[in-house]
Amino acid sequence: MRVIAGEFRSRVLKSIPGDATRPTPDRLRETLFDILGPRIEGVVFVDAYAGTGAVGIEALSRGARHAIFLEKDRFAVETIRDNLASLKVERRATVVKGLVLLALPRSTAETVFLDPPYALEREYTAALDLLSQTPPALTIVQHSIRLALADTFGALRRTRVVKQGDNALSFFAAHEPAPRS
Which CATH class, in words, describes the domain spanning 26-174? Predict the structure, then answer.
């Protein structure tokens, strides 16, 4: 697995053996950051259910000011820390070990990337419900194309869906509910 573009382009990242994590495919990561473009520069970016940290590291490589990695698996947390150390960006990152649903409400990031294990479908709804209470500027959810997410979660409204193979990226932004008449 490699960083696709930016400051750390082509740098190799350590991966996690086995099937405990499902890394975001390089092509999907490239699509995500092509869509985000200059919107990533200077933001605080959360990589929730971070796995190896590849998405958050890609955000740092492309100009994010700070990345917060949320992950509960001990081996994944070690891998994220190793990857950050190999790039010498530990000061631009925070690694939080624990349950994402407990750490997420404390985040003040402008951009949040959620990629729960596909088998934990309830985790998607729970995370989006939490984020809708104090919505970030942008929330991106990677999910199976077979998972039908609602178009709205409280103050979050889906603005775009991009499908690639078996994966989809759903983009959510904060919106004001329509006034009742």
Answer: alpha beta
Neighbours of 146 (CB within 10 A): 9
To the question of pTM greater than 0.90 for the whole model, the response is yes
What's the residue count for the chain? Answer: 181
Dist. CA 3–CA 134, nearest whole Å: 31
pLDDT of residue 35: 96
Q: How far apart are CA 108 and CA 99, in angstroms?
A: 17
Answer for the pair 115, 58: CB distance below 8 angstroms, yes or no: no
Q: Position of tokens 């259910």?
A: 49
Task: Enumerate the domain spans of the chain.
Answer: 26-174
**For residues 91 and 63, is the Cβ–Cβ distance under 8 A?**
no
State the number of CA atoms in the 13 A half-sphere of 167 facing the CB. Answer: 18
Predicted pLDDT of residue 20: 56
Q: What is the pLDDT of residues 103-148, one digit of tens each?
A: 998 888 999 999 998 788 899 999 999 999 999 999 999 999 999 9
Query: CB-based burial of residue 115 (10 Å sphere; 0-12 exposed, 13-18 middle, 19+ buried)?
Result: buried
CB distance 134 to 101 below 8 Å: no
Q: How confident is the model over 12-28, as a mean pLDDT? A: 76
The set of residues, in sequence order, having a beta carbon less than 8 Å from that of 14 and lying 6+ positions away, is 52, 79, 82, 83, 86
